[in-house]
Amino acid sequence: MIRINQIKLPIGHQADALKQKIRKALNLAKGQTFSYQIVKKSIDARNKPELWMVYSVNVTVTDEGSVLRKVNGKNIMLISTKEYVLPTPGNISSAIRPIIVGAGPAGLFCAYVLVCAGLSPLVLERGKCVTERTKDVAAFWESGVLNPSSNVQFGEGGAGTFSDGKLNTLVKDPAGRNRFVLETFVKFGAPGHILYESKPHIGTDVLSNVILRMRQYMEERGAEFRFESCMTDYREEQGAVTAVEINHREWEKTSFLVLAIGHSARDTFRMLQEKGGLSMSAKAFAVGFRVEHPQSMINLQQYGELYADRLPAAPYKVTANLKNGRGVYSFCMCPGGYVVNASSEERRLAVNGMSYSGRDAKNANSAIIVSVTPEDFPGDDALSGVRFQEMLEERAFSLGEGKIPQQLFGDYCRNQTSASYGTFLSETKGACMLCNLRGLLPAELESSFIEGMHAFDRMLPGYDREDAILSGVESRTSSPVRIARDENFVSPVQGIYPCGEGAGYAGGIMSAAMDGLKVAEAIIKRS
Questions:
Q1: For the chain, how big is the Rg over CA atoms in Å?
Q2: Residue 102 CA neighbour count, 13 Å, CB half
Q3: Full strand arrangement of the beta sheet holding 338-341
Q4: Rounded CA gap, 348 and 167, in Å?
């Protein structure tokens, strides 16, 4: 197969232009047939006002060697594609029933691969199925009445369900897992363009339906999903897991327990710490605020005047390394999105960002966060980062009286309560309240956040505008805990597999899903 990179075409080019460009690049005769597949598509906006659509394609043509001998260029090469292949199973028995705790991306894809291998996993999810969960989240945003077991953090699909559905990752992927995850999403209803977009996303509205279809497929093939079912204990004998307790009431036997618990399962972290069998440690993460700007401003900065109104809502990424050693950076950027109340505990408030598939809300928002390490946390045990998050979320709840506390950036710098919004309004899911966010973060983090915002203005002019809207607190950026595992993905308790973001091995939908695949592969080899 021939790969051609860096094919540039004008924005809004004709449908046949790419095919013509491929034919020209390979010096193919007019009647010579070929087929192609887009493997990457992106916008090159580095030389505004001139923008380009840039493609990488795989081309299938007869007598590839002869074709390549006639062309010259570093962007044309012969490649072999890597497809994801399940490991060769051990002695699979229908009596073996792995238990997976958590139905987020890691748990779902772990279960999916186990089903593909002929196993019948039991998936325990403390929250509700995605349909009922969506109703509970909408009711919470409308009324402020929280269901601690069914919310933005807990329920089928995990925390990523009420996010932007971003599917990009920096994880290196020689085994083809990334492509397999994307193809699986498409198989269950995601749009095909996620297979080649440089920054693919699904959107909350589409992702919910994809997750539902994926679960139904697994159930038809022997998997069992139990919702409103929280793991509350486990048993071990001679250093190996033997059973799991559900809701303090019943026990299920197992030899394989996958802990895909998500980054907000604080009660589960505490139970595991009290048990003492697993090796756990506090890990670094980042905290800060969700920051809103008009999407029109971001479009103008990214695309220029000529294309600002002609292209999809523009994303951005900003980062700065400060002299004090801290990093400040954007995280979970949501073009045309909403700031959402993402709380999961009473009298504690956390925010996140979310976009629908159309990305057509008026504002862009992103978490602007400052790195923190265990040295910043109270205490020195495995749950010190959890307590740090809880402290911030309790302050945020108090500041906003249970509503999302907000402030304009100029007022934040001046340490004064905002009296009103500036030239644009906030786009939120959940009630909000203007106040003074100073004092919510520790002093060094506050000064780092302000310094970072000013640094980003040099990258995106206007970023530190006076009326940029801050919402607090963005505290659930990644797990504050890591649960140790060996090279076979197993914890010190044999048969327990820490997995995904909650266990400290992923940072988003794609990396969590890919980690779920790795754990499933390890179980298949042992089963």
A1: 24
A2: 30
A3: 351-354, 338-341, 428-429
A4: 29
* Residue keyed to tokens 């193919």: 28
CA dihedral 295, 307, 168, 329 (to 10 degrees): -50
Structure tokens at 355: 């976009």
Rounded Cα–Cα distance for residues 119 and 93 (Å): 8
Task: Pull the structure tokens for residue 502.
Answer: 């909650």
414: Cβ contacts below 8 Å, ≥ 6 apart: none
How would you classify the pairing of strands 240-246 and 250-253?
A: antiparallel
Distance CA 8, CA 75 (A): 12
> What's the rounded Cα separation, in Å, for the pair 107 and 105?
6
d(CA 445, CA 375): 13
Q: Which residues have C-beta within 8 Å of that of residue 80, sequence separation ≥ 6?
A: 1
**Residue 176 region, left (φ>0) first, then alpha (ψ -120 to 50), else beta?**
left
Backbone angles phi, psi at 75, to 5 degrees: -95, 5
Secondary structure (DSSP) of 454-498: HHHHTTSTTTT-TTPEEEEEE--SS-SEEE---TTS--SSBTEEE
Q: Compute the distance between CA of residue 349 and CA of residue 390 in angstroms, rounded to an integer.
A: 9
Whole-model pTM: value is 0.96
List of residues 6+ apart from 201 with CB closer than 8 A: 164, 165, 166, 167, 194, 355, 357, 359
Structure token pair of residue 451: 């310094």
Domains for the chain: give ranges and CATH numbers: 2-78 (3.30.70.2700), 99-281+481-526 (3.50.50.60), 284-474 (no CATH)
Q: Does position 167 have pLDDT exceeding 60, yes or no?
A: yes
Dihedrals phi, psi of 305, to nearest 5 degrees: -65, -35
Cα 31 to Cα 287: distance, rounded to the nearest angstrom: 59
Residues in the chain: 527
Residue 57's SS3 state is strand
If DSSP states are collapsed to H, E and C, what string results for 217-281? HHHHCCCEEEECCCEEEEEEECCEEEEEEECCCEEEECCCEEECCCCCCHHHHHHHHHHCCCCEE
Tell which residue, 415, 156, 384, 392, has the closest CA to residue 284: 384
Give the lowest-confidence range in 50-54, 64-68, 362-366: 64-68
Question: For 433-442, how does the pLDDT look when each residue is reduced to its tens digit (9 = 90+)?
Answer: 999 999 999 9
Instruction: Tell me the CA distances in angstroms from 384 to 262, 309, 369, 379, one per residue in order.
Output: 17, 47, 19, 6
pLDDT digits (tens, 9 = 90+) for 229-239: 999 999 999 99
Beta carbons of 241 and 493 less than 8 angstroms apart: yes
Closest CA to 460 of 313, 339, 309, 315: 315
